[in-house]
Amino acid sequence: MQKDTRKCNSVSNGTSLLKRLSKTTPSKIILFVMDGLGGLPIGPADSTNINGVKGKTELEHAVKPNLDALAKQSVCGVVDPISPGITPGSGPAHLGLFGCDPLEHEIGRGVLEASGINFPLEENDLAVRINFATIDKEGKITDRRAGRISTETNIKICEDLSKIKIDPIKIFVKTVKEHRAVVIFRGENLSEEIAETDPQAVGTLPLEPKALSKEAESTSKIISKFVSEAKKILISHHPANMLLLRGFAKPPHLPSFQENFHLNPAAIATYPMYKGLARLVGMKVLELKGGNIEDEIAALEENYNSHDFFFIHIKGTDSSGEDGDWERKAKVIEEADKFIPRILKLKPDVLIITGDHSTPALLKSHSWHPVPIILHSPTCRVDDVDNFSETACVKGGLGRIRALEIMPLALAHAQKLEKYGA
Amino acid sequence: MQKDTRKCNSVSNGTSLLKRLSKTTPSKIILFVMDGLGGLPIGPADSTNINGVKGKTELEHAVKPNLDALAKQSVCGVVDPISPGITPGSGPAHLGLFGCDPLEHEIGRGVLEASGINFPLEENDLAVRINFATIDKEGKITDRRAGRISTETNIKICEDLSKIKIDPIKIFVKTVKEHRAVVIFRGENLSEEIAETDPQAVGTLPLEPKALSKEAESTSKIISKFVSEAKKILISHHPANMLLLRGFAKPPHLPSFQENFHLNPAAIATYPMYKGLARLVGMKVLELKGGNIEDEIAALEENYNSHDFFFIHIKGTDSSGEDGDWERKAKVIEEADKFIPRILKLKPDVLIITGDHSTPALLKSHSWHPVPIILHSPTCRVDDVDNFSETACVKGGLGRIRALEIMPLALAHAQKLEKYGA
Fold it and tell me: Which residues of B touch A5 (CB under 8 A)?
């Protein structure tokens, strides 16, 4: 028995085990994530709803011959993003999919936003999400999104705010999109234990960036100074005459895909946050020609020979679910379905189709419901699930698993894992 | 809360809980393990393969009326030997079945082999697996198994090698079977952190038994000396003119069945390794009249009154799977099936039928695929699984469990567990 083997023995968690057992091989894995995929039926299952449709989830309603055929030739199941009953944010949900325990590693929104715009965060940086807002003469918030100013306006504002100096801290203010930006404070001993200033309501004053611990007091002063300086500059930028700060966060130390799984991974996503999440675990984010699923699949095809793991992120299923648009969510699934044959043509050794969590249009929000999954591989034990839906997948051969178990299964089916023990 | 209660609370693993809750009762448990039971369909499930058989696993193909009838009257499920995606060796796979966490306890091959031949290992012994091999004039390996010499020849060679003296170490060289043997070094401060000398290839020189840590340096010198002395002796034993060393290991400290579960267990197995594993957890290994399943069942019948737990190990399902012999594996299952009525005639309180892992003939190796399980007991909640197969069991009442959960279920159904808490 070798030394490194023994060292890992004492660590019971699965990630260390994978680090020890995984090996680089030519086989390829595609993880195709439809954000917020799982849904809930509109109308009771045994009756007909107002549209004359029998109660069906978005996925059940969608016409998706390719996904159904794939489910039939694969092993299926349902996935709890974290554990039963827990509704995850996008960060923890993706960490789980990436085989990184979301209960051990937490990613603050500030870090997500900064990563999403490709800002090169350093170890001690403190990243904070900015929402530009409108306040009235009394300082009370009248619009928490500053009338959704244009991204162009946002860029000009951020240039102005970047001039703020608070020695010895370096400050970077960067545009994300519309009313959203991110500020990065660079310096020693900065703390993320600062209260958010967004009261999440209009008609009230913004909150103070209070220190939530003794260690955070000096940071709190810096943030307060920043807010008061910013306020002076923003007077001339009405309706964006105020900023609200959320998600104070320092970069987490996540093990990379290279380190943990001996993979050379690539990410294909259209939204900044998902690119950011992928970068945090060591993925190369591929350039896209546009923002459609078609562009994502084209990027997969063009880069297929250069990587052995691909994460593809489809956003539309989640945003339509969040909007409560059951019909549009089904349409996004139908759109994605059309590209399945092009993915299969690449002959990946393992193709996984799932979501990061459920976003039922009925709830207009993320939910805790398990997400259906298809695992397609020549080494899979095909079950008798004959269509891709929440209900059918419950009876699949994978049973009910946790998102954290997807990467070990993907690696196993791609035959990238050594046997454990003699 | 009482003091001992609080002590147990801090231990998160289930074994401590079982130690606390289990009690001795007259009820009897039989754990019938078909090694490598789970399989994969030959040919895709939706087509017909070259033999004109629709894609079926070995288990689905086997004619096994008794197992099917038993599944119908039992609760079924599928078992991950370790966790989803992890392919286990025989050691960790059996530890899981024996309710002993395979991620906490690791057993090296040397120890497995020594236990398998009933060698009374002492606490500080270092056990190492020997493969006799053939080398050419340049010392390069030409056959890693020395033409599979007979066991009789092996015995003579081991007698010669036992004459090697390296003071103050005691050396025991013992025959296992054909080209396989085991050497036990007894002395102080021996380390298992020694590199294996088998290069796992022909045409190259054997490797040096290098120390993998500073502490192992003195052990490395002893092993090197042993190899050079052995080489001199083996000159006269061509084709077994060299030995290759693997699996340097010291005995693990495993909790016994007596201690953990208050059971008086017996093991019925034909292969040394499984007898060895059973002994490591305190099982009495029963004598068999021969090496067939029939002999195993006869031993069960004869000793039925003397124990309250029986582990029965069927090897043929694994060896046929490893050989890629789908048809033979199905035949072994059919052979085992014939003895189910004799087992049932004993009226065990709990009969569990499962495997330690999957060995699909398609892969010719152990695999990570979950293994079907039948749990038969008057206290089981019968589900609607109506045949014993991987696909049918997925829908069983046990769902997808881990091997480590089998012992608690067995004890519970045998009504050997007290209630937890007031």
Answer: 106
